[in-house]
Amino acid sequence: xxxxIVWVALWVAAGCGGAASDDKPRGTSSRxxxxxxxxxxxxxxxxxxxxxxARPDGPAYSVAIxxxxxxxxxxxxxxxxxxxxxxxxxxxxxPQRVQLRDGGPDLELPLRRVGLSDAQLEGEERLVFTLxxxxxxxxxxxxxxxxxxxxxxxGQCRTATEPLVARVTAQ
Length: 171
Fold this sequence. Notes:
- By secondary structure, the chain is mainly beta.
- The chain has one helix at 2-13, and strands at 61-66, 68-70, 76-84, 89-90, 97-102, 107-108, 113-115, 120-122, 126-135, 139-153, 156-170.
- Strands 2, 4, 5, 7, 10 and 11 form a 6-stranded mixed beta sheet that branches.
């Protein structure tokens, strides 16, 4: 009986518990309202970073979002960093991207989509997207979109879609 429990626990931990690895959102954490993505470390509020240590039983990746603060009319950059954790690596074969949906009427978005070819790959574990934005009036603005990503370990790749909410503050 005990060996069955161990086998089932290993089977579920290996990802064979019925959840397919696809491009569909698996939920969000503090940035959304659908639950927690079991593959990601806790999401962060805009302008905060995730600093989780890599553990074999931990998350496959983390996402950190850094907002921007600067003068009205000046192009600024929101940074989105995807870090593979727990022995995972960024999947270079997957079309990783950030798709921006909305910046509001007072936030100009020169690019609506930033792909892997426009991102900076730092080693095999970190991918940084730079998203330009130009605020048209003083105040706080929210940049919304989604991050499509994939990480791999031991020949198994996982894909996920994470929500993007970033703050741009214009002075």
